[in-house]
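RAN GTPase-activating protein 1 isoform A
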Amino acid sequence: MDSTWQAYQHRPLTIKLWPPSQSTRLMLVERMTKNLTTPSIFSRKYGLLSKEEAEEDAKHIENVAFATATQHFEKEPDGDGSSAVQIYAKESSKLMLEALKRGPKAKEDGELINEKAAGATAETVFDISGGRRDFISGEETAELLKPLTGPSSYNKICFSNRSFGLDAARVAEPILLSVKDQLKEVDLSDFIAGRPEAEALEVMTIFSSALEGSVLRYLNLSNNAMGEKGVRAFRSLLKSQINLEELYLMNDGISEEAAKAVSELLPSTEKLRVLHFHNNMTGDEGAIAIAEIVKRSPALEDFRCSSTRVGSDGGVALVEALGDCKHLRKLDLRDNMFGEEAGVALSKVVPAFTDLTEIYLSYLNLEDDGAEALANALKESAPSLEILDLAGNDITAKAAASVAACISSKQFLTKLNLSENELKDEGVVLISKALEGGHGQLIEVDLSTNSITWSGAKLVAEAVVGKPGFKLLNINANFISDEGIDELKNIFKNSPDMLGPLDENNPDGEDPDEEAEEDADHDELESKLKGLDI
């Protein structure tokens, strides 16, 4: 039953995880500094630290955490250091939270350097999106928007989930004109649902004209089925925006022509940090137009172009444009038809993303060559990567060594998704070994639908079950024997919620007793595992 694993017992890998290198320690300090200086619910309540103070705190936190972990490691000299890594991470997180809650230190004259002192907490949200999703009349609009008609400090408005017709739009128009100069964020997602095209276009034009000239940092026009006509209906508003930091155009029917219109109408995207184009019918030519926007957005941190029907040519154009986005932290290109060529092209620009923390590349038809190229590139970059998603890419055991080496280098990984591939036991052996050492922050692993038998399932279960904070292992829809299922439940007997459902498992999908075939693969597996660089 365990023959695959037993074959490696005489050649174990020696993994020493402590102490971390100086570059790793410096990277943690840099990461904590960024977290401490990023606006959050804590900074709004306690104040935002300056970069200088955050850097000083981060260095102190790292030194204390390192000393605590080293003291622990010295008490167990024969250990591999994995528990010291966990203590290092936990202590750093605890002390960083304390620094956030402490807030900025007072100046000598007693003045606090925080958001409240700067007036930042005066931001107030006006939101009518709650309640029933329905058409609203002019009379209802007047009543809903009454708080905006008098003096107020509202600078964020959300009209989502209410369908405006012409009567409602004409009531809203003068009210928006009166407050547009104080607005910073506008959410008009899903605000014309069910309206005839002609009426919807006129409503969008009215809102666009009323808001023209407002200096926005955030604009959400998602879920409006706009197409090119809708994009151009927002011409006045879009052309007046030169300070946008976040733009959302999801589920908007953004075709090739609509994408070109967006690129044409946006006057400046130099400050743009977030750009989302999820669930549109953009295609290759539309992706090329979006790539032009990306080229003009050097500050981009979060880019989403998922489920947009983009093929190889458009994919190559997009990823090449992303090469200039040195500050990218989150990249989501899921559910497109990129293929190997676009995957290889992406691997060439990935090294520029030193701040990358999340990457979603599932269902891109990458196959082994594309996956290997990306895994090799990620291994040498993105040291703070937390989420890696390569599901549904026809990845086999051939690429597993590269993927495993990449995983081994990502000690801050929290979620790993390799579902719906063809890794089989041969590939899962390598992935399991990569997960064994360190990875103290790992909370979720998905290896469902990978033709895994009990041999592979046992190894990955044992690799994750003891990790602090781990929450879910999904190995559903594989070929695990009934006896193997019982053994899995026994492995997780102290934490049954960690093991995901197994209702789609097929114990007869593959014969677990094909010893001859397993034996024939042992030598090749041994050589791959021996050469795995962890």
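thats it. The radius of gyration is 26 Å. Residues 1-14, 107-122, 511-522, 528-534 have pLDDT under 50 and may be disordered. bye
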